[in-house]
Recover the amino acids of this structure.
């Protein structure tokens, strides 16, 4: 594509034709406050926080395409007044108990309000006094409508990325909110609980249950199936506290299913086996891997001699790699058996 030259706050930058003003600015490390924009989604222009002055006219920068020689101002009396009003209308209806919010210091509304300069004292008398109940009936997600800014990122994520379309705008006026068909709980809708909406939510309206800030992250691969999705495990005090997708992984590009994102509690579960067990005198006792493998080999040989090789069978797993499954079936065939199956077919 052709490169276009434009001026942002007097600074000349070059961007590809077809980019929006917001994309051009962010690519050149020029900050324009925004809330409803997400790089994974199509531009919506809902929040109007990203308004700028382009060639003398106010436009939402997330939808306005760049043009050669365009002069853009990201601030100024007119822009600041319109932007501050848009942010204040969001803040005045938002429950601002930031210290107890799981999104504190990672909240886009907090970031934008700080940049725009909202005076909380001036808005105090306009704030809603009655709080809506927090919905925590879902096994993995917490929904807090008191913090929802109606940006529509969750709706567009469900439509454009997962193609489930489980949620949408509902009701009208002050009662407007994001909900499922019939305003039923998420777990009673066609929602697959993948959490893609949650990870893109710019505020604390959608949070993961029990997730805490990690001390560090470990890059690894999800073990739930053979897809091999790249993930980062959040770790704190030796325990997994959360999972996020690896956006640089060519397999999943950061996206995860419900198992990959929320199915990690088994790792630290007290009932998880961490060493082989051998039953002796009617009771399971801990044993070494050498003892366990020697016992398995001896039992295989015993059955093979007594009943023939076809009496042996193997049940493999969809949670291991293709290479491991290949070696498993080679093992069974080397023992003379073709009876190999997989748990994914059950």
């Amino acid at each position: 594509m052709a490169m276009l030259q434009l001026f942002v706050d007097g600074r000349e930058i070059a961007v590809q034709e077809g980019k929006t003003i917001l994309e051009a600015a962010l690519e050149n490390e020029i900050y324009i406050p925004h809330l409803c924009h997400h790089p994974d989604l199509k531009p919506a222009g809902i929040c109007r926080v990203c308004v700028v002055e382009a060639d003398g006219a106010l436009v939402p920068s997330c939808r306005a395409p760049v043009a050669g020689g365009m002069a853009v101002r990201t601030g100024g009396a007119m822009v600041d007044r319109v932007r501050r009003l848009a942010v204040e209308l969001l803040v005045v209806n938002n429950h601002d108990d930031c210290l107890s919010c799981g999104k504190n210091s990672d909240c886009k509304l907090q970031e934008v309000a700080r940049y725009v300069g909202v005076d909380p004292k001036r808005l105090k008398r306009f704030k809603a006094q009655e709080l809506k109940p927090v919905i925590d009936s879902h096994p993995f997600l917490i929904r807090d409508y008191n913090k929802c800014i109606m940006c529509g990122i969750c709706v567009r994520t469900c439509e454009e990325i997962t193609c489930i379309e489980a949620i949408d705008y509902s009701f009208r006026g002050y009662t407007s909110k994001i909900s499922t068909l019939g305003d039923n709980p998420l777990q009673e809708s066609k929602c697959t609980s993948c959490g893609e909406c949650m990870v893109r939510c710019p505020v604390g309206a959608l949070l993961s249950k029990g997730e805490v800030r990690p001390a560090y992250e470990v890059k690894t691969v999800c073990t739930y199936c053979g897809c091999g999705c790249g993930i980062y495990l959040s770790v704190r005090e030796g325990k997994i506290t959360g999972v996020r997708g690896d956006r640089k992984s060519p397999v999943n590009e950061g996206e995860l299913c419900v198992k990959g994102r929320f199915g990690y509690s088994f790792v630290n579960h007290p009932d998880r086996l961490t060493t082989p067990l051998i039953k002796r005198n009617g009771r399971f006792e801990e044993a070494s891997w050498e003892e366990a493998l020697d016992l398995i080999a001896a039992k295989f040989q015993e059955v093979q001699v007594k009943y023939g090789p076809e009496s042996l069978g193997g049940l493999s797993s969809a949670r291991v790699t293709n290479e491991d499954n290949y070696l498993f079936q080679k093992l069974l065939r080397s023992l003379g058996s073709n009876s190999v199956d997989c748990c994914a077919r059950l």
